[in-house]
Design goal:
- About 45% of the residues lie in helices and about 20% in strands.
- The strands form 4 sheets. It has an 8-stranded mixed beta sheet with strand order 1-5-6-13-12-11-7-10, with helices on both faces. The protein has a 5-stranded mixed beta sheet with strand order 15-14-16-17-18, with helices on one face.
- It is elongated and about 95 Å long.
- It is of the alpha+beta class.
- It folds into 3 domains: about 5-150 and about 255-360, BirA Bifunctional Protein, domain 2 (2-Layer Sandwich), CATH 3.30.930.10; about 160-245, no CATH class; about 375-445.
- Helix 1 packs antiparallel against helix 5 (about 115-135) and helix 12 (about 255-270) packs antiparallel against helix 13.
- The protein has 17 helices and 18 strands.
């Protein structure tokens, strides 16, 4: 961790403490299953794992799963509210990583045991104002809703694997180089109606050929599931295209809050009262954010935003610097705590900063604490010099002592053989230390 990271961590720790978030320490090594239960492919493929006494362990790739596990160990079957912040190293080796840098620094927070718009707004506003606290005031906040998107997609009654395929490839719809035609071409290869006949022939041939339990390295059960999936998809082709059309329209909605609500409401439809209620709560979060001092012009609503389809269950958000660099994000993950243990369902929302990008956006920020005053001590005045240094520190004056002869003329403070302090062409006795401190602070101002 660099001095710069320490500086950022200190500022953010103090900022989040203003919201009542307690700093906690979490294990660096956890059972690997903890990070695999609801992790997306990026986390799974970047884990550092090892075996110990026939158990698989991993270096933590993020903090949220560890915080959720800590919550269940700490509270058993109870679900009290916990406001936690954390910072420390995480370890990831993503595919295609061209560098040898596997250790990164992460800072974030979790609000566990509290649902609703107030909790979402608290986490989002705290993370956004944290950027201001470290000097990045010109940020862009993008907010979406994973839960609402999934609910609307469920209207098409697709098989779970087909729905998952569509969600994970929905970003293609907004890609200028590909778009809807590219995604439909992929879907045709897998689920088009003409695939129904071929898949039926394959199933028949598969049933006739029982000479081996493994074909091409895959078990008969795996092959059977793939063929049935293919046939189901072909039978539901019209629903698949309708769902693709919906995701295409949904993904095109993006803009400042006042410009998107009507479009979202129209696409949801008046008859879907549950989805309309989710939208109303979404709007209330945005209203609360404005009350918390985040201008509407710095907010962008993009309902299709998805940080991870497996992980998040509700509102999601991302923070970017003025030049578009992602500096953090998070969202609601109400299912995680119940999945990792027998703990009752517990609402939770959190976020983390992308420290590499955040440090880049900040640049070199000034120290928030005063740099130490150099105090030169002559060789015969060690005791007096140590006494002066101690008393100055008690007066909240950072003091670094030195006996280097070169500092005799450059140090702002110098203790002579009589035990007095020379500063700014004046000599102070110990009885005058408060006057010295007052003048030093006045100079710094």
């Amino acid at each position: 961790m660099s001095i710069h990271d320490h500086q950022i961590a200190d500022l953010l720790q103090k900022h989040m403490a203003l919201y009542g978030y307690e700093l906690i320490d979490l294990p660096i090594i956890e059972p690997a299953d903890l990070f695999l239960i609801k992790a997306g492919d990026p986390i799974i493929s970047s884990l550092f794992t090892f075996e110990r006494q026939n158990h698989q362990f991993a270096l933590r790739p993020e903090f949220t799963a560890g915080a959720a596990s800590h919550y269940t160990r700490l509270f058993g079957n109870q679900s009290p509210m916990a406001r936690w912040q954390y910072h420390g190293p995480i370890f990831q080796d993503p595919p295609g990583n061209g560098s040898s840098t596997y250790q990164h620094y992460s800072i974030g927070a979790e609000l566990i045991g509290m649902g609703g718009a107030i909790a979402d707004a608290e986490i989002i506003s705290m993370s956004a104002h944290g950027l201001t606290a470290v000097g990045v005031s010109d940020f862009q906040l993008t907010i979406g809703h994973t839960g609402l998107t999934r609910r609307l997609l469920s209207r098409f009654q697709l098989d779970a694997r087909i729905e998952r395929f569509l969600l994970h490839h929905s970003a293609i719809l907004q890609d200028p180089g590909h778009g809807k035609s590219h995604l439909v071409a992929q879907l045709k290869r897998l689920y088009a109606p003409e695939q129904a006949a071929s898949s039926a022939d394959e199933i028949l041939q598969f049933q006739l050929d029982k000479s081996t339990d493994f074909i091409g390295g895959r078990s008969r059960q795996d092959i059977a599931r793939r063929l049935l999936q293919k046939r189901k998809g072909a039978a539901a082709w019209e629903q698949i295209i309708a769902a693709t059309d919906f995701l295409d329209q949904w993904g095109q909605i993006a803009g400042p809050p006042p410009q998107v609500w009507d479009r979202m409401r129209d696409l949801i439809g008046a008859s879907d009262e549950v989805s309309q209620q989710i939208l109303a709560e979404f709007q209330s979060v945005i209203n609360l954010l404005e009350i918390c001092g985040i201008p509407a012009e710095q907010m962008r609503i993009k309902p299709s935003l998805a940080r991870s389809w497996e992980y998040y269950t509700g509102i999601v958000f991302e923070l970017a610097s003025r030049d578009g660099i992602n500096v953090g994000g998070g969202g609601r993950y109400n299912e995680l705590i119940q999945l990792i243990s027998q703990h009752p369902a517990t609402p939770a929302v959190g976020f983390a900063y992308n420290m590499i990008n955040l440090a880049r956006a900040i640049g070199e920020i000034a120290h928030t604490t005063n740099p130490p005053m150099q105090l030169y001590i002559t060789p015969t005045a060690h005791q007096a010099g140590m006494r002066w240094a101690h008393l100055l520190r008690q007066q909240q004056v950072a003091t670094a002592i030195t006996s280097d002869v070169a500092a005799q003329t450059t140090a702002p403070l110098r203790i002579d053989e009589t035990g007095n302090c020379h500063a700014r062409q004046r000599i102070y006795t110990l009885d005058e230390i408060e006057q010295l401190v007052a003048e030093l602070k006045e100079v710094k101002q």
